[in-house]
């Protein structure tokens, strides 16, 4: 059984920074993880790149040869990846052992997790290769400055949840940029009724029924729950260690460790 995180979220939400923090943390704690670049437009990396989509296809070549713009070119590259899952990805995965841990740093185009099936087929391929996969969805903390932004950010995450049908951890990134701590309290474990009241206040009266349904569906799917992340300085509730433990739990990584704790308890009882 292998383990994988699929790191997604809107453009600039901090996905690559998160991957590099995770890599540094794992290096310090002597844990092995491999970070994979799935962004054909990425150029600079703060982590060693274990696998790289740019070895399969170059965005510059696609834009030049097909006369596409950067977004059209990126979608073409991702569709090419989808067509090459059985050969390129399968061959690359052969370099990893059964219980290896891979982290996929994805591009930020929202289409990839709203309606285009590339990532869905990608994770299905990983699951066929016996990987336990968790989606890690990053949302920039600027989304909590305004209730309408927050709800739209949550809806985008929910659409990834519905499309990919995998364990899913939401992360609110760049917490160091939040100056108003009240905003954090309002949005971290939001009281649905208060959110709804605030949303109704911001929107025209004809949207009240829609607002109610939106909040209901977000609550039902646990899509309003976030863990916090801050790359700038260490705060225990924002720590990468805490986030990693939540994700490990979702993909049942380190179950052996739990068994050891049980044995220990048993010894004490004896
Ligand atoms: N202040 C602050 N800035 C951050 C944090 N995380 C990321 N950034 C900055 O946000 C910008 C975007 O970060 P990236 O990690 O490249 O974001 P990304 O989601 O990988 O972006 P794309 O791959 O282009 O979609 C960079 O300038 C980062 O330095 C954070 O925790 N705090
Ligand atoms: Mg990136």
Automatic annotation (TrEMBL):
The keyword GTP-binding applies. SUPFAM superfamilies: P-loop containing nucleoside triphosphate hydrolases. Coiled coil: none annotated. Keywords: GTP-binding, Hydrolase, Nucleotide-binding. GO terms for molecular function: GTP binding; GTPase activity. InterPro entries: Gpn, Gpn3, P-loop_NTPase. The keyword Glycoprotein does not apply. Belongs to the GPN-loop GTPase family. Small GTPase required for proper nuclear import of RNA polymerase II and III (RNAPII and RNAPIII). May act at an RNAP assembly step prior to nuclear import. Binds to RNA polymerase II (RNAPII). This is GPN-loop GTPase 3. It comes from Capsicum annuum (Capsicum pepper). The lineage of its organism: Eukaryota, Viridiplantae, Streptophyta, Embryophyta, Tracheophyta.
